[in-house]
Amino acid sequence: MHPRTFRFAVVAALAPTAQAWQELARRAEELGYDTLLAPDTMTTLEPFTALAAAATATERLRVGTFVLPAPFYPPSEIAWRALALDLLSGGRFDLGLGAGRPGAEDEVVHRERRFGTPAERVKQLSDALHIVKEELAAAAAGRSPLKPVQKPHPPILVAAAGPKMFQLAAAEADILTLGLDPRTTEDGLAAKIAELRAIAGSRVDDLELSYNLAGVGTELPGFLSQQMGVDPAELIRTGAPAVLTGTPQEMADKLRRRRDTLGISYIAVNGMFLEQLAPVVEMLAGK
Q1: Assigned superfamily of 7-284
Q2: pLDDT, tens digit, for every residue of 45-74?
């Protein structure tokens, strides 16, 4: 298969003011990033509100959830919110869904929803994907003026790391983001891609594969260890793909190799490293 063109996303969740948030979105667009992605946690901006504000401040930049824990929401609510944001962004919305990240059970009590077993949550995600697609397709074909701009629905991103989620993503997603431990090595990343290919078969060629960079460069703030659960210096020592190091050319070469050998073409980066990755984005975006 011919390699996909590179796309780049910024993952951001907080800003001190509305103006600062919209300036971040405009800066990402100016630097050539393709997408602004917002996580869904109780300690960050509510993603649909934040992404709507970002969309109104930009012209080209796509916006997306990264990712909604499907067990936290009734599926019809996800469809309703996705429909609204797709419309208000002018068709620049990606719907990211997952089965619930590690630690999310501490937040579910605030959502008045039950955080089930892993198998139950995969089933909830599967059901949500089917219902959301059905309801958005119905809206596209219905008489109401409230219709998705992207037909029959916005692109769907699924976060996955294991066999059951790989199988679900292969069947239902347009984009698969690899939700791996940041300590995963280059060999471990290659092994996961091999596992995905074995499960997805020919369908893997239809998936845009994404990987998240937790850091860029060797000057990483210590508080990143709280976010990642591991000392960033350890990741640099082991050459973990979650941290990209080297000159801009060296970093670009690493991403090209991963794209050409593993098929990973959609690169997301922690928003605090927006500027550090920008030279690489300039070299690779759309190529």
Answers
A1: Luciferase-like domain (3.20.20.30)
A2: 999 999 999 999 999 999 999 999 998 899
For 107-161, what is each residue's pLDDT tens digit? Answer: 655 566 677 888 999 999 999 999 999 999 999 998 888 999 999 899 999 999 9
Does the reported pTM lie above 0.85?
yes
From residue 165, alpha-carbon distances to 47, 177, 181, 230 in Å are: 23, 11, 15, 24
- Specify the pLDDT at position 104: 66
In the chain, domain spans? 7-284
Model confidence at 230, pLDDT cuts 50, 70, 90, reads confident
| Mean pLDDT computed over every residue of the chain | 93
Q: What is the C-alpha to C-alpha distance for residues 50 and 45, in angstroms, rounded to an integer? A: 6
